[in-house]
Amino acid sequence: MKNSPKERKKERAVLVKAAGADLLLAKFGAGCVDVVGVSCVTIFWLEEKLIKYTQTRFISALIWIGTGGQKMSGDLVAVWDVALSDGVHRIEFEHGTTTGKRVIYIDGKEVIRRDWMFKLVGKETFHVGGTNTKATINIDAVSGFAYEYTLEINGQSLKKYMENRSKVTSTWLLNLDGIDCRVVLEKDTMDIWCNGQKMETAGEFVDDGTETHFTLGDHDCCIKAVSSGKRRDGIIHTLLVDGMEISESE
């Protein structure tokens, strides 16, 4: 016996395709399903209409499947982790594609909120971390209901910025007295950061280069800078804690 039109209407096919995940086809009656994907592209197929959401890393959508209506809540569309000298900061972006709402969180703290925006595309500029680093989220329309979200740091794409940053900073991860420490050296200024704090330092010239001294708790630390003797490799920086060399993080 065939289902009545009313019963068939309650059954909706939802096709979800997430990058790195298998194709999933599921049928639901009246109710809702929470779909969360860490992906570049997530596709929802509801009532024979294809709606494509393009984003950088994360999308969370709540789809109500009932009498033919569709309701979406949870406007989080992108999450980025940005490694700066004072730490790794998480940037979250909410975008309401019906109201134009834009909300930006840094490390869980709301820094920008615009509840009503007639223009759904555009950009938002703000600053991140103790280094006051400039960041911009670009909102671009792809087609129809599709939007692309990209993050720029100091005018560069996040990928390009991180590639360049790896050339001008050195990072060490270590545990001292049960505390995880992230030590970052900015090679151009010789500033040293540890767990978000800029360290007091004292530099001196030695026979084979320079030494920059600072302390972490009761531990004497030193970053030595010596020439590699090779133009391509340039200066080699080494962290010593109580005289013991610490391997640099990749």
Please give the radius of gyration in angstroms: 25 Å
Major sheet summary line: 5 strands, antiparallel
The secondary structure category is mainly beta
Overall tally of structural domains: 3
Order of helices and strands: HEEEEEEEEEEEEEEHEEEEEEEEE
What is the helix content? under 10%
Strands of the widest sheet, in order across it, are 19-20-21-22-23
Low-confidence stretches: 8-73
Transmembrane segments: 21-46
GO cellular component, one term: cytoplasm
Family: Belongs to the FAIM1 family.
Keywords: Apoptosis, Cytoplasm, Membrane, Transmembrane, Transmembrane helix
Q: Secondary-structure map with pairings?
A:
Blueprint: H1 5-10, E1 12-18, E2 24-28, E3 31-38, E4 41-46, E5 49-54, E6 58-65, E7 76-84, E8 87-95, E9 102-106, E10 109-114, E11 122-128, E12 133-143, E13 146-153, E14 156-157, H2 158-168, E15 169-176, E16 179-186, E17 191-194, E18 197-198, E19 202-206, E20 209-216, E21 219-227, E22 235-241, E23 244-246
Antiparallel strand pairs: 1-2, 1-4, 3-6, 4-5, 7-8, 8-9, 9-10, 11-12, 12-13, 13-14, 15-16, 16-17, 17-18, 19-20, 20-21, 21-22, 22-23
